[in-house]
Structure formats: C-alpha cells, structure tokens
Amino acid sequence: MALRRAAPSEPTLLLYAEQLARKEVEAGALRREKHRLQDELHRLQAATVANAEQHGEEAATLRGQIDKLHRDQSREGANMEYLKNVIYKFLTLQDTSGRMQTLNAILTILHFSPQEKNCVTKLQRNAWWR
C-alpha cells in the first residue's frame, strides 16, 4: 500500500487516520491469511504423517512377502534336490523293498492323493524298470 501526501487543503490528521485504517484492514486480512495457511500446513503435515505410516506398513508387508518368497525359493531348490536324490535311488535300487520305500518317499514329497498312491502302487508291481 503506497502512502500519499496530504494535499494542501486536506488536514494531515485525517489523511493519517485514513491510512492507519487501511493499514489495519490490510493487517487483519494478512493475519486471516496467515491463520488459514497455518491450518493448511498442519492439515498437510498430519496427512503426510498418516501417509508415511501407511507406506511404512505397506513396505514392511512387502518386505515380509519378499522374504517369504526367498525362503520358499530356497526351500523349493532343496526339495528338488532331495526329490532328485530319492528318484535316483529309486531308479538304481535292485531290491523291491528298497524301491517301495523310496516310492513312498516320492509319493509323499509330491503330495499324491490316496487314490493316486493306490494306482501307482498297483502299477509298481508291473513296472517297466524291473
């Protein structure tokens, strides 16, 4: 707000009072704007904190899922290695009793259903590898 000089015919005190009133109006408007901006700042800070907490929880969940996938993947490799060894033993065994034991291990590792186990056991009697 620019201050103007009093004209020679205008009393200086009246001009001063007018300018002071304008200044007070402007200061009031600036205070209201300051309060509005502070309220907005607090609202945004609260939203930021809430978002950070939510993202932190999501990140922790995702890290847990990644860790589980790594464990499953390493476990899967170990199970595959174990299954390979059991099948190798099954194919190289000469005695029927040893074959039946390794066949049961294979059926268990691969989670065969009871019906599938019965079918495989029956077919084992006439297997091509004997």
Automatic annotation (TrEMBL):
It is a peripheral membrane protein. One of its GO terms (cellular component) is Golgi apparatus. Residues 20-72 form a coiled coil. InterPro entries: Golgi-autophagy_related, GRIP_dom. The keyword Coiled coil applies. Keywords: Coiled coil, Cytoplasm, Membrane. It is found in: Cytoplasm; Endomembrane system. Its main location: cytoplasm. Residues 73-123 form the GRIP domain. This is GRIP domain-containing protein. It comes from Eleginops maclovinus.
